[in-house]
Design brief:
The structure is a single chain. By secondary structure, this protein is mainly beta. Helices cover 0% and strands 53% of the residues. It is built from no helices and 24 strands. Strand 2 and strand 3 form a beta hairpin.
Length: 237
C-alpha cells in the first residue's frame, strides 16, 4: 500500500491524469486538486449514474433516470448535454462512456446492443451483436469497451466486433487500464487476463470495497471512509 486518505463522500469516482480527485457528495459532482475545487450539480436530472474522467477536458456524466448525458470542462462547467429522449431516433440507454472523437459508447436497452454514438451528428455508427442480460458494469477507453453482465465479461472493439468473452459469474464491477482488468466479486478482487483469473492479495483490514479505480500504476479503493492507494507495478530502482 502506498498511502491512505480520509475521504467523506458518498461515492469515489477516481483520480484523473492530472491527479485531481473526483467524487459525489449530496448528489453533486466534486473535483479537487491543484487546479482548485469545483462542483457541478443539477438536481432536476436525478442521481448521477456514472462519471467518465478518461478525458479531464471532457468529463462525461450520465443520468440514467432521465436518459441524459452532460459534458463538463476541466472546471466542471457544463459544455453541452444530450437528451436521448429528444433525439429524432429515440434511444433508451443504460450506460454511456467516452469513446473519443465526439463519440460515446452506449448500451441500448431495447436492442441489447453496444453502440458507438456520434453526439455531433447524432448518428449511431456501430452496432454490436445483442448481449443478453443486464449490464452490471461498463468500462471503456477509446479503442474498446468491456461489458459485464451477471454471467460474462465481453470485450468489443470500435468496429462492433467481439474480441473476447469470459465467463464471470456474480461479479459486481470491472475496472481497467489499457489491457489490465480487475474484477470485484464478494468484496474480493481478481486480475482478469484473457481467460485466466488470478486473486489479488490486498490487505483491506476486512473493510468493504465501495468504489475502486485502476490507473496506469495505481489501484484506488474506497471503503466509505478511507481512500487507499496500492501500487501495482514494481517501483523503479
Amino acid at each position: 500500500m502506498e498511502q491512505t486518505k480520509a475521504l467523506d463522500v458518498d461515492r469515489f469516482i477516481g483520480i484523473d491524469s492530472y491527479k485531481h480527485l473526483y467524487s459525489i457528495k449530496d448528489g453533486a459532482l466534486q473535483k479537487q486538486g491543484e487546479l482548485g475545487e469545483f462542483v457541478f450539480q443539477d438536481f432536476q436530472l436525478g442521481p448521477i449514474t456514472s462519471v467518465d474522467i478518461i478525458n479531464p477536458l471532457n468529463v462525461v456524466v450520465f443520468y440514467a433516470e432521465v436518459n441524459t448525458v452532460v459534458f463538463l470542462d476541466n472546471r466542471l462547467s457544463e459544455k453541452e448535454r444530450i437528451s436521448f429522449n429528444s433525439l429524432p431516433s429515440f434511444l433508451n440507454i443504460s450506460s454511456a462512456t467516452n469513446a473519443g472523437n465526439n463519440r460515446l459508447w452506449i448500451f441500448n436497452i431495447d436492442t441489447q446492443q453496444l453502440q458507438l454514438f456520434n453526439y455531433r451528428t447524432t448518428r449511431q455508427t456501430i452496432f454490436s451483436q445483442p448481449y443478453p442480460g443486464k449490464i452490471a458494469s461498463q468500462a471503456s477507453d477509446f479503442n474498446d469497451c468491456l461489458l459485464l453482465t451477471d454471467s460474462h465479461l465481453y470485450r468489443i472493439n470500435i468496429y462492433g466486433s467481439l474480441l473476447s468473452e469470459v465467463q464471470l459469474d456474480g461479479y459486481q464491477k470491472v475496472v481497467r487500464h489499457a489491457k489490465k482488468i480487475i474484477g470485484l466479486k464478494d468484496n474480493s478482487l481478481y486480475l482478469i487476463q484473457d481467460e485466466t483469473i488470478v486473486p489479488l492479495v490486498i490487505n483491506l483490514n476486512e473493510n468493504t470495497i465501495k468504489d475502486l479505480q485502476l490507473t496506469q500504476e495505481f489501484l484506488y479503493i474506497y471503503d466509505g471512509n478511507i481512500l487507499s492507494t496500492f501500487r501495482l507495478t514494481k517501483p523503479k530502482q
